[in-house]
Amino acid sequence: MAHWWVACGGGPSVDGTTGPSGGQICLPGDSVCITVPIGALETQEVLRISPHAQRPPGALSDGFDIASVDGRSITFHKPATVSFSLEIVNTDGLANE
Asked: Engineering a disulfide at 7: which of 28, 50, 88, 97 sits with its beta carbon 3.0 to 4.6 angstroms away?
């Protein structure tokens, strides 16, 4: 399981299927996405993007987990890309210099 601290403001989970032919799984509004390239996975996998219960100190956004729905480890044979929207980052505590 991987933990990414990305900007999305909490909310629902999403499950999606991807496999050897690649694909993309996104939260509504494309606020968090994982893009899996062709050949990165040997079999079809169901991945879930879900809010993470804890927020690390100093984080500018809520955290999300991206993991297999059955909790198994997944090996990516090519790098997958995780993207997120910066529009929802909480910048209230940042100094404007």
From this structure: 88
